[in-house]
Amino acid sequence: MTTPTIIGLAGGIGSGKSTITKYFNNIGIQSVDADDVARLVVQLGSTCLDQIHQRYGDSILLDDGNLNRKSLRSIIFDNPEERSWLEGLTHPAIRKEISVQLSSITSPYALLVHPLLFETNQDAICDLVIAIDVPESIQLQRVMSRDNISRENAGKIMATQLSNSERIKRADLVLENSGNIDEMNAKVFKLHKKILESQSC
Ligand code: ADP
Questions:
Q1: How far apart are CA 57 and CA 38, in angstroms?
Q2: Where are the domains of the chain?
Q3: Which residues of 71-99 are buried (b: 16+ CB within 10 A; e: fewer)?
Q4: Measured from the CB, is residue 186 less than 6 Å from ligand 1?
Q5: Would you say 100 and 51 are in contact if contact means Cβ atoms under 8 Å apart?
Q6: Measured in angstroms, how far is the CA atom of residue 29 from the centroid of ligand 1?
Q7: Which end of the chain, N or C, is surrounded by fewer C-beta atoms within 10 Å?
Q8: Cα-to-centroid distance, 14 and ligand 1 (Å)
Q9: Which residues face 188 on adjacent strands?
Q10: What is the pLDDT of residues 38-57, one digit of tens each?
Q11: What are the pLDDT digits (tens) for 160-195?
């Protein structure tokens, strides 16, 4: 299995990962999205979903047999033991699927988009990590308006993730996303050129 150069894109919820990834995709860079992979490994018929079902019973499934994410979230919310059981089950499956998907990428480099890149040690498989930098006030605002949730709930999710400053400390490059979309795209294009140039050295 050959793997391309892997560039990690790390950023908390609402930092702009999906928006930035769309632009990378438009300029020909393929990506693997850890959130999509996390959904894939618990899809109907998966080993992970079977094990979750065995542990928590029928109430963990929706009528159509798919995972009831809301029920699962409520089980692990205040229960570190159950959270760690679930992570022990899903994280290895996620890591495996991420490498399978990365190995099929044919663009000059691959983007690994991950809300918990450092938290799950997936920075270890990256050749370079870009951290998205957004002031928390803007991040909160964007999450609240995108997901139509309260400041309190947005804040709760952000509290489970590394802070911007910690993420930036651990990254190789920083992409600042407090301006508008055009400004963001221009910065991404500049960064893309820089990465390509560094590859041709
Ligand atoms: P993430 O994938 O990191 O959770 P998104 O890319 O979905 O974040 O961005 C969160 C919200 O902020 C979305 O509604 C998106 O359209 C908006 N957004 C992202 N970047 C910008 C920007 N530079 N200017 C204005 N809105 C933005």
A1: 21
A2: 1-30+105-201, 43-100
A3: ebeebeeeeeeeeebbeebbbebbbebbe
A4: no
A5: no
A6: 19
A7: C
A8: 6
A9: none
A10: 999 999 999 999 999 999 99
A11: 889 999 999 999 999 999 999 999 999 999 999 999
CA gap 77, 106 in Å, rounded: 39
pLDDT band at 64 (very low <50, low <70, confident <90, very high): very high
Q: How far is the CA of 177 from the centre of ligand 1 (A)?
A: 9
Of the candidate CATH numbers 3.20.20.150, 3.20.20.70, 3.40.50.720, 3.40.50.300, the domain formed by 1-30+105-201 belongs to: 3.40.50.300
Q: Please write down the long-range contacts of 192-201, taking CB distance under 8 Å and 24 or more positions apart.
A: 192/24, 192/27, 192/29, 195/7, 195/108, 195/109, 195/128, 196/108, 199/5, 199/108, 199/109
